């Protein structure tokens, strides 16, 4: 479990900056004399492309506020340039271009995903990417924020998801905002915390569009699970498992399949059906063959990972049939590239 590490502001804020950016940073201003909470850190490459420079980040606090939930984070490094730190908004998105929208809270017990609140005039209650990035990156971490819907009252800790799927687990949910607040942007880490919208603005936002059931929110997690009283279906993003147009599992697929295998070992019974799907790129015959080969690769991998008596495995492919999204868009095609593992639930042995 990750604990909240607290570092004094001022001179030692420079040490935090070094941790997050890998660069020497000047001491923070005197305004940042309060503690700097750090619930967890992460590193990834700009645009989620290994050939680009790194982005270093941290989740600082998840705080209950009137009408919502505030998330404070910071990012920096040579890869922290506009557009590189998170996916761009789609045409159907309720967020404006340039919003730092990819900040969410995962409630694993309630199976809910909480996204930033949006207003009726298509504004995001969140930082702008211009407030946390700069062309060529940033040498010192800059602090961002997002206001999400209210969390369940009994929720003590959550998983925070940032950017291109970076997860920080066991982040405490508190009732105390860090201080002091700063109305200026950008806010350098150690120099205070961005001032949040007022209570009236937060309460005017409709929370319903920003709360997604995990079972249907296939765009956000690498896997989406749908359960009924006697059956479970786990859909895995093919882009996590395979290189584009290929059927050999990538090294990063192992971790995702281990999670699926753990679920099978704990609850699976009877036959495990592995079905591959593709988008509509390429010919119909190519897509059909690719979906079958991918399903076979996943089946073989799961058979090596699961050693539970009574389980049998089968695989098949449906090619570009049964799409779950529009193949006319990049986001839609990404959702359609998937492998689904379906099994009866009969408890563990």
From TrEMBL:
InterPro entries the record matches: Bact_OuterMem_StrucFunc, OMP_bac, OmpA-like, OmpA-like_sf
Region (Disordered): 203-231, 312-349
Subcellular location per the Swiss-Prot or TrEMBL entry: Cell outer membrane
Primary location: membrane
Protein name per Swiss-Prot or TrEMBL: OmpA-like domain-containing protein
Keywords for this protein: Cell outer membrane, Membrane, Signal
Keyword Signal: yes
UniProt keyword annotation of Acyltransferase present: no
Biased composition (Basic and acidic residues): 318-334
Species of provenance: Flexivirga endophytica
Pfam families for the chain: OmpA (PF00691)
GO CC list: cell outer membrane
Annotated TM spans: none
Domain OmpA-like stretches: 229-347
Signal sequence range: 1-30
């Amino acid at each position: 479990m990750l604990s909240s590490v607290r570092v004094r502001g001022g001179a030692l804020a420079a040490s935090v900056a070094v941790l997050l950016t890998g660069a020497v940073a000047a001491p923070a201003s005197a305004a940042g004399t309060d503690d700097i909470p750090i619930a967890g850190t992460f590193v990834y490459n700009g645009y989620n492309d290994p050939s680009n420079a790194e982005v270093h980040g941290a989740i600082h606090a998840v705080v209950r506020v009137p009408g919502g939930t505030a998330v404070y984070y910071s990012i920096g490094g040579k890869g922290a340039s506009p557009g590189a730190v998170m996916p761009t908004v789609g045409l159907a998105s309720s967020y404006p271009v340039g919003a730092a929208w990819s900040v969410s809270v995962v409630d694993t017990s309630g199976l809910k995903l909480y996204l930033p609140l949006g207003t009726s005039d298509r504004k995001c209650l969140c930082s702008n990417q211009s407030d946390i990035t700069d062309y060529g990156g940033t040498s010192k971490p800059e602090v961002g924020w997002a206001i999400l819907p209210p969390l369940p009252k009994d929720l003590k800790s959550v998983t925070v998801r940032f950017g291109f799927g970076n997860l920080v687990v066991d982040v405490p949910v508190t009732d105390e905002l860090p201080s002091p607040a700063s109305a200026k942007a950008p806010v350098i880490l150690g120099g205070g915390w961005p001032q949040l919208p007022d209570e009236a603005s937060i309460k005017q936002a409709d929370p319903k569009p920003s709360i997604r059931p995990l079972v249907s929110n296939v765009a956000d997690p690498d896997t989406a699970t749908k359960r009924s009283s006697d059956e479970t279906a786990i859909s895995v993003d093919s882009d996590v498992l395979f290189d584009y147009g290929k059927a050999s599992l990538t090294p990063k697929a192992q971790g995702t399949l281990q999670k699926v295998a753990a679920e099978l070992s704990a609850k699976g019974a009877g036959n495990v059906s592995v079905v591959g799907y593709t988008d509509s790129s390429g010919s119909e015959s190519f897509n059909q063959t690719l979906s079958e080969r991918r399903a076979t690769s996943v089946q073989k991998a799961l058979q090596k990972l699961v050693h539970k008596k009574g389980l049998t495995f089968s695989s098949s492919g449906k090619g570009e049939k049964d799409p779950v999204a529009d193949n006319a868009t990049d986001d839609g095609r990404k959702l359609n590239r998937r492998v689904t593992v379906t099994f009866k639930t009969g408890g563990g042995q």
